[in-house]
UniProtKB/TrEMBL annotation, chains A, B:
It comes from Glutamicibacter soli. GO terms for biological process: glycine biosynthetic process, by transamination of glyoxylate. The modification N6-(pyridoxal phosphate)lysine is found at K190. Keywords: Aminotransferase, Pyridoxal phosphate, Transferase. This is Alanine--glyoxylate aminotransferase. Residues 38-328 form the Aminotransferase class V domain. Its cofactor is pyridoxal 5'-phosphate. The keyword Ribonucleoprotein does not apply. InterPro entries: Aminotrans_V_dom, PyrdxlP-dep_Trfase, PyrdxlP-dep_Trfase_major, PyrdxlP-dep_Trfase_small, SP_NH2Trfase/AEP_transaminase.
């Protein structure tokens, strides 16, 4: 018996619903991963990613795995055992950076911040006199907080700056060159509006020259990957692994959609939807979790009222409205909701639906 | 101006054209990666993969990256620095195993074989008295050679047996439990007939108990991944990373297609197509590369006649017929062709088309 196809409204922390163009591209006939037509497609994708990252870095490419592998690639290619990594922690993904960096053999210097607050660049600067890398999350998916990456760039000194832009890219400006980001990674499934499966990645020439010569990961070795995605110095592409060709086609379509709409317009759209949602939630009497002035429009964190069962509300939204929102993480698992309006979902209809559905769910669940 | 959509016949070493069911599933509405409906889907996928792997291993799952990451996962989870890995090398993917294992800190003991010949289990047994792991490729994609993995299982002693089944699984029997495979990895884009992007993976309880407690890769740490795909011991799934949900939906559809056709029928179909192709090529006066009696039906290697320009023929096939075939690898780059008939392409029409097109290309290119 055929199961009915569920059509979810993905208003959680990700994946988001993809742009229709991105979904349509998944169904196109496959190209081989060394087909000249695919290589041309990969070139276009890398070009579009440069625009999204605000960079001219030659080595800007989609890694063949999800955003978390992008994080791993950032550290395995920059950290030799014993190198110092100063990591700003203001949420789950900062925590994860510490774990990943330590597995690469880094001496990790954590700079802890209260969850819900942004990174304090001055404290990061004072944490160590001469780190090899400094790392921080631009848009913390776990807390809904935006941090000032340019401020980190200004204090990085000789260190390389690693930035997690998983939840920011495609929904707000990310200016790698201007801000001084040396290594940036992201995911496709948030504001880019493509299914999860790829990690858009960029690395500056400065970082690439200093890179680990033989990273512990063969799969994520940028020295080897560069020969495939950007061509070797002698011209021609060398085989490394089989690229996820369907996902790359989908990413191309998603990026074309965003760039034809215009990055400014996309930013404005995300900002407007997020502001409307946050205003509406507060008008309903709910309290926001992230510090005022540092709230992500694309990912809103809300405190669950004390009398309300978080899981029941989420279950009600899923069952009755086919709406997914997220719980909190760690100690906030049951006391915070995370609501994403990313990619095509950043629009007034989503806001109206969410506010109405959440109100009913809180009343009835 | 809209570009025409290319519709390639992917008769190279992979990716293959996907089963239509697998392509259709890519376009379904996305589910969240923690949605109960997605978790049920993941359970079904893991069940189907157990059937394909011929195993009852609890930890049988699709890794969120391509087949080469499956290879990396196999070694990072089993090798502690200084452990001995005896690796049978009879092609590019055996070579790659040596490289990946050495980056994990293994003392690699290579057992080299002439390219085009199968693994000699006796020589592998004699290479070291007490290795931690023994590794070999079941179906060498670079040479078109099938090796007897059961023979490796019979001589493994206390060692763990790692097997690359990238090109075999879904096209011929792979019997992990019966043959003594402890860790197996594959890809989706060959005989499984799904786009590249996932690595079907299995690990025995015996190997899991001996696993590296904190692998150098956080992304491929099976201890952490197990909590997400198979549930933690306390029940419930723990978040690790965002699964590539569209690819998993596609994999489910591809596996359902294969299992409803029946594994025996699928095997017979691949065998028949490969035999017909190999007979036809020899009737055309071409010489096969892989040793007789050890030829893969799903991937045929052919010697390029001395008077023929390999690249010109491949270019002609692509331009005139939209057919992709592969060149050789390494020293055989220009002297061998690799022709795959995998997944839906293992059928009489593909054979007839290939033989006619290749004949014309050799005559005219």
């Amino acid at each position: 018996m055929t199961q009915p196809v569920l059509q979810r409204q993905l208003f959680g922390p990700g994946p988001s619903n993809p742009y229709p163009e991105a979904t349509a591209a998944l169904g196109l006939p496959l190209l081989g991963h060394l087909d000249p037509a695919f290589i041309a497609r990969m070139d276009r994708v890398c070009d579009s990613l440069r625009t999204l990252w605000g960079t001219s870095n030659a080595r800007t490419l989609p890694l063949s795995a999800t955003g978390s592998a992008g994080m791993e690639a950032a550290f395995v290619n920059t950290i030799n055992p014993g190198d110092v990594a100063v990591i700003a922690v203001n949420g789950l993904f900062g925590e994860r950076m510490c774990e990943v960096a330590s597995r690469v053999g880094a001496e990790v210097v954590r700079v802890d911040h209260e969850y819900g607050t942004p990174i304090d660049a001055q404290r990061v600067a004072e944490a160590h006199p001469n780190p090899t890398v400094i790392a921080g999350v631009h848009a913390e998916t776990s807390t809904g907080v935006l941090s000032d990456i340019a401020a980190l760039g200004a204090i990085k000194g000789d260190a390389l700056l690693i930035t997690d832009a998983v939840t920011s890219i495609g929904g707000m400006p990310v200016l790698a060159d201007e801000w001084g980001i040396d290594v940036g990674y992201a995911g496709t499934q948030k504001c880019i509006g493509v299914a999860p499966g790829l990690a858009p990645f960029t690395i500056s020439d400065r970082a690439f020259e200093r890179r680990v010569q033989k990273p512990q990961s063969w799969y994520l070795d940028l020295g080897l990957l560069g020969g495939y995605t950007t061509g070797s110095t002698g011209g021609g592409r060398t085989y490394h692994h089989t690229a996820p060709v369907a996902m790359v086609a989908s990413l191309e379509a998603g990026l074309e959609r965003i760039l034809s709409e215009g990055l400014d317009t996309v930013t404005t759209r995300h900002q407007a939807a997020g502001t409307a949602l946050q205003n509406g939630l507060q008008e309903m009497g709910l309290e926001l979790f992230a510090a005022e002035g540092h709230r992500l429009p694309q990912l809103t964190t809300v405190k669950v009222p004390q009398s309300v069962d978080s899981a029941k509300v989420r279950g009600y939204l899923l069952e009755r409205f086919n709406i997914e929102i997220g719980g909190g993480v760690g100690q906030y698992a049951n006391t915070v909701w995370r609501i994403g309006l990313m990619g095509p979902n950043a629009n007034p209809s989503s806001v109206a639906l969410l506010l109405a559905a959440l109100k009913e769910a809180i009343d009835k669940a």
